[in-house]
Amino acid sequence: MNWLLGSEDEYSDPQAIIEANKAIQSLVDERETLQKSLTQFHAQHEKLESRVSEMEAALALKDAELKKTDNALKAQGEGIEEGLKLATALQEASTNVISFLQTLKDSDCSGKETDVEKKLQAHRDAGILSDAEAGLALAIAKDGQAHLFQAWPAVGVQDDDKRRMAAQMTALEQSYPGGLSNYISNARTLLEDSRAGRNPLTGWVPSVPTGTTCPYGTEVFKKYELAGESEVGFAGFVLVAGGLGERLGFSGIKLNLPTEKATERKFLQLFIQSILSLQHLYNTRHSADRQLPLAIMTSDDTHSKTQ
Q1: What PANTHER family is this protein classified in (predicted)?
Q2: Cα within 13 Å of Cα(261), Cβ side
Q3: Confidence band (pLDDT; 50, 70, 90) for 273?
């Protein structure tokens, strides 16, 4: 596009005309560029003004929230102060109550031990308890077991039961390692470990125990059978029979299951006959008249049917 037009008479130099047109075009382009920049500047200015307005509004909201929080903290501080005063008063009251209850407990325990001591001395003086039995009972009572004797009636009432209890305590004292005092201590330790979730088997490593195989009819079998025959007179038998026979396809109690098809002899019958055979064998060989005891553990499902 030529911006300068004229006749050859007026502009005789074509090159000058071209250069002039280029200069004019450059000025026009520069003007358009400046116009675009100015438009962009105005747009950015408007955005900045809008952003400034938003920030001012946000700052105003934050200022209001800070004032609200400050007021709340002041009110809360007053409440906390009152709460601390109340907590201190409650703690003092709780300490007094605990002290009072401990005093009552100590007084009650001391009273129980004193009553039991007098009661045991009276039974010893009456010849119901020996000196050793009375001493053992008193030691047990002082070890926190006074309740065992607290309900004992006066001398002359149920004295045979008291003697049996004293005999049982003496037997336990002699049979348990460390005596009944050690038994009580171990029981407390185990209960505390259980309460705290401690495993008493920690550190133990399971292993397959060693034993002796006794094939039937061998000399080893005969040796141990003979040893068992001499001790069976002092044995008792326990039969655990609390379950039914559903897993075996049987609707009754398992004690009533047949052991074989020829006579359909029941399991309980076979079990008792085996005990009676051992009893007869022992009594015959040792000229004794022992009766081997049998205890049967039942459940609500099996008790009446077992009877």
Answers
A1: UDP- GLUCOSE PYROPHOSPHORYLASE, UDP-SUGAR PYROPHOSPHORYLASE
A2: 0
A3: very high
- Residue 288 has φ and ψ, to the nearest 5°, of -115, 175
Domain layout of the chain by residue ranges? 110-196, 234-306
- Please state, in angstroms and as integers, the Cα–Cα distance from residue 174 to each residue in 127, 142, 180, following that order: 22, 19, 9
pLDDT value of residue 104: 47
Other beta carbons within 10 angstroms of residue 233's beta carbon come to: 17
Helix (H) or strand (E) holding 294: strand 294-297
Distance, in Å, from the CA atom of 224 to the CA atom of 59, rounded to the nearest integer, reads: 97
Helices (H), 126-237: 131-140, 147-150, 159-175, 179-196, 219-231
Tokens of residue 35, six digits: 């116009």
Q: What percent of the chain lies above the pLDDT cut of 90?
A: 21
DSSP 141: I
Grouping H, G, I as helix, E, B as strand and the rest as coil, residue 47 is: helix
Give the helix ranges, DSSP H, for 197-266: 219-231
Q: Exposed, middle or buried by CB within 10 Å (0-12, 13-18, 19+), for 211? A: exposed
Mean pLDDT of 235-242: 91
Crossing angle between the packed helical segments 131-140 and 159-175, to the nearest 10 degrees = 80
Q: Which residues contact 262 (CB under 8 A, 6 or more apart)?
A: none
287: left (phi over 0), alpha (psi -120 to 50) or beta: left
Backbone angles phi, psi at 10, to 5 degrees: -75, -40
